[in-house]
Design brief:
This protein is of the alpha+beta class and about 60 residues long. The chain contains two helices and two strands, in the order H-E-H-E.
């Protein structure tokens, strides 16, 4: 790891209780994600190519 100059960087996440609080909040307030569009799995390459264009508003869903 030292010779490759790779870095170890932990990701801080909340507790299980925090996740439960978040899930209840999402349900209580009927929060839904914004979906920009959906593509079939066979068209996934084009879906990923669309992301760097920055003309995406919301999630791009790939259906399988």
């Amino acid at each position: 790891m030292f010779m490759s100059q790779a870095r170890y960087q932990p990701v801080a996440i909340g507790s299980r209780e925090d996740l439960g609080d978040l899930a209840r909040f999402v349900v209580r307030h009927a929060i839904r994600p914004s979906i920009d569009g959906s593509r079939d799995f066979d068209d996934a390459k084009n879906a990923y190519a669309r992301l760097p264009t920055r003309s995406v508003f919301g999630k791009v869903v790939i259906k399988h």
